[in-house]
Structure formats: C-alpha cells, structure tokens
Amino acid sequence: MRIPTIKRCIYFALICALLLIFRLTIKDYEGADQQIGPVRTTEIDSSQHLKPPSSSEPTSAKKLWFFRNGELYPSPAMEYSRNMYIPYYWLLPDLRLSQSDRIVNQLMYVPDDYGDVKASRQIKTILLYNGLLKWNVTKGRDVFVSDKCPVDTCQLTDDMGMVEDVDMILYKDRYTPTAKVSSVRRIRALYTSQITMLYNLECPFNTLELNVPNAINWTASYRRDSSIVTPYSKWVYYDDNVQQRVQDRNYAENKTKKVAWFVSNCNADNGRLEYALELQQHIEVDIYGACGKLKCSRVTPEKCFKLLETDYKFYLAFENSNCKDYISEKYLVNALDRGVLPIVMGAHPQDYAALAPHDSYIHVDNFGSPKDLAEYLMVLDADDDLYNSYFLWKGTGEFINTHFWCRVCAMLHNKVQLKKPYFYKDYNDWWGGPNVCTKGTWNNFTKVGLDPSQVHSS
C-alpha cells in the first residue's frame, strides 16, 4: 500500500477548501436573490389566496416612507448584511427581473457612500431640456427636499449653457436635440457617465419615432422594462404575505344599477366602444359622455365618482389602446377607491396583475365574448358574497406615490450602473415594435417571453 506524501495531502486539502468556498459563495448569491429585507425583488404569485389577517393597518413607524404617513426610511446599502445588499441589477432593467418594475427597490435605495456624498455637498444636476414649465417644477432642489427623498442631493435646471456639465439631460415626450447637444453627447459618451433619459407616457400609437440611434441611455414610461417606471398608479402591499382581510362592509348594499362607463373618445384603436355596445345587449350598461345618451360633466368629476359609488356595481375602465403595460384609465383607481368593481380592457391581464391588488378587477380577455362577460356579471349581481370577494384586498396596502424625482436622483447615485451607461440601439423597436400593441384582444396574441397558459382568471 502506497502512503500519500505530505505534499499530496496538502494539495488535496487545498482543493477541498476551494470547493467549500465556491459552494458557500454560490449559496450566498442564491440567498441574496431571496433575502433583501423590506425591499421587494420578485413579484408575488397572484394566484395564491391567503387567509384573511386579524391585524389592523401597520403604524406609521412600521410603514415604509412612501406609504401614507410612513416613517421607515432606508439605510445606506452597505449597512445591510451581505445577503440583503441591493445589487445594481435589482434597480434598473435586467433579464433576471423581467417582470418586476423595481419601483420599491428604487424607493428604498441609498448608496453605500451617501454619508460622504452629503458631507462633501456633491450635487447631481438634471437638465430639463423642455424647460421647467413642462414639468410643473421649480429650479433647484425644492422637489427633492419637499418630497423627503432618501437621496436628495440633486438639482433641476433649464440652463442650456450647462449642457456640458450636467449629470443628466431629461427629454419630455420627444427627443429633439440641437446640434450642440448632439456633438457634446458624442464626446461625453466616450469619457463620462452623463445620462440622457426620454420620458413618455403616451402609447406608441400616439408618439413620434426617434430616428437617432444610440441617443438614449434611460427611459421613463409606464412600461415595466423602462429604467424609471412611471405608472399612472401602483399598488403596494404592507406585507406581501397578507393580501386579503375580512371586510365589515357589504359593497353591493343599496346599489340598484349594474354597469357604468364615462367616455369621450368614440374612435379608439381597440374597438372598446363596439365591445361596450355589444355588452349592452346582454346587461344594463349606462354610457355617459360623447359616446352615450347620459351626461355627467367632466368639470365636476367628484359628482361622477359619487354617482359610481352609490348607484353602480361595475365600471368599464377601458383604455383607448391595447399596449404592453399601458394602464392609464384614472377611473380604474377611482372605482377601486369608491367600492366599485372595474372591468378592464387595455394592457395584457398579467400587466394589470402587476399594478393592481389581486382579485380586484375583471379583465375582458378572460371571457370568450361580451355575452359571456355579461352572464358572469349577472351571477355577481345576484350573489353579494361572490361580489364582495373582489374587495377582500382593501386595507392590505395602498396605491402609492411612486416619487419619480426621488427615484431619478437615487439612480444617478448608482455608481455601478453609471460606469458604463447602456444605450438603446433601436428605441423605436423597443417602444413600438412587434408584440408591443394589438388592435384586437390578447387572447389570440402571444407576447415575446409570455406563455398564454399562464394568464389566470380574476
């Protein structure tokens, strides 16, 4: 029997040690994807039905700062344990988080060296290319201070003479640079981390093409794959594990009418009026505005909301276009706040699931026809318990202020991402290319990266 030499024993021990270290590193990396404290990194499975909690709304001291009266602010990133550190790919678009809007992560991000940044009074400057009036803001730091941003060392300016020195150039609705800006951008792109961002809340059918390649670093829009996602509304649970509560109210009580719709545009791209008129053949649908016979002045919206709250069980929250993540219908949130069940048309069912409380709305694409939808609404109308099951989400969270300026400022302090800024090689293809919008329903339309079988019924 051959006895191993001391040298071979040492080599063997070193190999075992390296394998052990590698295994622990992999374990830490996997753990980081699951444990990041109060910051959300993944979307909750919206198919789960959780038991109603017995606890009440959390106190201000236990609510994150962006909730109503919230007082819990984030600490610098490096003060978290290694498994709770927020990597850069949890802040800006990344394939690993393709279905996440990262809004909460951005709201809770403070760079590890922020104490030094504040002490040195280093201020990031954002040039509003279209001027201050377009944004309804004032020059300087006011918006960051008044919003009580966790990262507030930023300022706004409309001084075009500073174009060579600013940290970000922000365009609203369209990208129309002057020759000077274009030449400066080409030079600075090589040597600095100056960012250009395009802000756009209109759907692709109503926007202009951008014919300059590699001009935009970041985007701000309602799209979840934008750099700074800017939705018209965003629901956040106080606790992701508590999505239902026992309610002490019958939301169907004293409501004598079925479906209402307030609408002024009768020529939408997605055929919403035709759908509503066919639905009207099978269930009572009261249409207010230019497309119907009833009137409720847009000058007094509170009167219309009150009418919804007291008389109607359902509201048609129909968008004018069916596009990825496009959910702009203000009546969706107002209907939810007023105890009315919205029936939605516009974005894909999974897009609504990412922004609204679970089981709080009905999507038309979950039904084969307007007649099928009408039959289900009649069932709900006759069954108060079933109707009220769509309101169990109340009291479990809030539609939050997503604090656009706070998140822009925080991301401008994210050094890892700024080292090598990303460029949109073909903005038009990303914004309005194939599989972004459909003029029909989503039932027969497959989006890239989405399995239609995953669409659940509300």
TrEMBL record:
> Where does the record place the Fucosyltransferase N-terminal domain?
124-232
Any idea of its EC number?
A: 2.4.1.-
Fucosyltransferase C-terminal domain span: 253-430
Q: What class of enzyme is it?
A: transferase
For this record, the Gene Ontology CC terms, alphabetical, are:
Golgi cisterna membrane
Pathway membership of this protein?
A: Protein modification; protein glycosylation
Q: Name one Pfam family in it.
A: Glyco_tran_10_N
Q: Which Gene3D superfamilies match?
A: Glycosyl transferase family 10, C-terminal domain
Membrane topology is: Single-pass type II membrane protein
Belongs to which family?
Answer: Belongs to the glycosyltransferase 10 family.
Instruction: Supply the PANTHER family for this chain.
Output: ALPHA-(1,3)-FUCOSYLTRANSFERASE C-RELATED
UniProt protein name: Fucosyltransferase
Q: Which organism is it from?
A: Drosophila guanche
